[in-house]
Design goal:
There is one protein chain. The chain is α/β, with parallel strands linked by helices. It has 19 helices and nine strands. The chain has helices at residues 8-11, 15-37, 60-64, 67-73, 81-86, 89-102, 109-120, 130-138, 143-154, 168-175, 191-194, 197-206, 219-234, 254-270, 300-309, 325-334, 350-364, 380-405, 412-431, and strands at 40-42, 156-163, 184-189, 239-243, 274-278, 280-281, 294-295, 315-319, 338-340. The strands form two sheets. Strands 1-2-3-4-5-8-9 form a seven-stranded parallel β-sheet, with helices on both faces.
């Protein structure tokens, strides 16, 4: 063994071992590069096209008052909830910043996300200077300029937004015909229809859709007309609803009657998938408002039944409970009209993203959508995709190494093809665009 070049351990390796080491290094660099530079379609967000005005949330105060951080803050602060909600947005943000970032180290994923956003935007995170961060945002005179910057930093090609015709502020934007940025694609959100039927009935009648609480007359036809009208108005790429853990199908309930007689026929006729996000327990702590929702294990049999009984309907499904993830992967192996997507809400934590992504690749290969941001604040897409890209790259690297060990060679073009499928093509192929 030579001892004059400082690489004694390399010189001791055989030719085959050296070649394997070099190939592994190339693979690590290539996977990281491709994953980090491939533009993504973020298939589920709570963002809005810029012309919708103030309902598109952005800025450091919105980041700090995100409901994840509110819930975390209230674990430390002995304050009546209503007192917190009576504070101004700025004062709420000050309290969150002081509690979670100054008085304690910001190690939670939600806190780390804020730091990642500020750092990626070029701000001095070490300064801990909230006033400087606020000043930075005031320099953007148009939200459109900040949208462009965020999309560039996060390498976002397009986003799918959550659009609810039962939300008065948003509804007026659509009826006014405000222009939609071509990077923002709508999803028709129908929670108000499926989860609050008695409240939806008078509103539908007010809007010219003749429906009855007990489904008399042409109620089903009118609800179908409502769905079709709004799909066309929004050019919606899918219909979506958030459902409780106890959701079952079939059953004699208004929700299931509407799904069976209205949503599924419209989904089949229009080719729009029906996206179900299952497992949220609403307002287990009402005092926390949006931060007060929780999670429960759901019935996988519902997905099996729907996919089997409605083979011409496309279903997109994500489930909130970790305990549902393995069953969901297995069901997806059985039905090609099912696309599973994302690590939703309480699953959007690095350890769980890693676990779930590995499981999906091992059971489904590349035929799934690994992630969505669920962002409610525009800036959040920066950290959610930065963190997820790192994890996805690590998991892909391990899987490529596994098949290399079996004698399979992987090229950069093939890696790029695979990542493009995961980051957008799978979605667009599934929705038929």
């Amino acid at each position: 063994m030579k001892k004059n070049n400082g690489n004694e351990w390399m010189d001791a390796l055989s030719f085959e071992e050296t070649e394997e080491l070099e190939q592994t290094g190339w693979l690590m660099e290539t996977v990281a590069k491709v994953v980090n530079e491939t533009p993504v379609t973020d298939i589920h967000t709570h963002l809005y096209t810029p012309s919708f005005g103030e309902i598109l949330l952005w800025g450091v105060d919105e980041l700090l008052t995100y409901h994840y951080l509110v819930a975390e803050t209230m674990r430390w602060v002995d304050m009546p909830y209503e007192k917190f909600w009576s504070m101004s947005k700025r004062d709420q943000a000050d309290l969150v910043w002081r509690t979670l970032f100054i008085e304690h180290s910001p190690v939670s994923e939600a806190c780390r996300g804020v730091l990642t956003v500020l750092n990626e935007l070029g701000l001095d995170v070490a300064s801990r200077d909230l006033s400087a961060y606020r000043k930075y945002y005031t320099e953007f005179k148009k939200v459109e300029d900040f949208v462009d910057l965020v999309f560039e930093v996060a390498k976002i090609e397009s986003v799918v937004t959550t659009n609810d015709p039962f939300d008065d502020l948003e509804r007026s934007c659509w009826l006014e015909g405000r222009p939609v940025d071509e990077r923002f694609h709508a999803a028709l959100r129908i929670d108000g229809l499926l989860n609050n039927w008695e409240e939806a009935v008078p509103r539908l009648n007010e809007w010219g859709y003749k429906v009855s609480t007990h489904f008399g007359g042409n109620t089903y036809g009118e609800v179908q007309r409502f769905l079709t009208d709004w799909i066309k108005r929004m050019n919606a790429v899918y219909m979506a609803v958030s459902l409780p853990p106890g959701f079952v199908f079939p059953e004699e309930s208004p929700r299931v009657k509407i799904v069976e007689n209205c949503v599924l026929p419209v989904a089949e006729e229009t080719g729009r998938p029906f996206a179900m996000m299952i497992g949220v327990k609403k307002l287990v702590n009402p005092g926390l408002r949006l931060a007060g929702d929780s999670v429960g294990k759901s019935h996988i049999e519902v997905i099996e039944y729907l996919c089997r009984q409605y083979p011409n309907v496309k279903f997109m499904v994500t489930m909130l409970s970790r305990e549902n993830q393995h069953e969901l992967c297995v069901v997806a192996r059985k039905f090609r009209n099912l696309m599973i997507f994302g690590c939703w809400w309480f699953l959007n934590n690095p350890s769980l993203i890693d676990e779930i992504t590995r499981m999906r690749l091992e059971l489904l290969g590349l035929s799934m959508i690994p992630q969505h941001s669920d962002a409610r604040v525009l800036d959040q897409v920066i950290y959610k995709w930065s963190h997820s890209r790192q994890i996805i790259a690590e998991v892909l690297l391990d899987k490529y190494l596994d098949i290399m060990d079996a004698g399979w060679n992987v090229t950069e073009d093939e890696i790029r093809r695979d990542v493009e499928c995961l980051f957008g093509r799978n979605f667009w192929d599934f929705v038929g665009r």
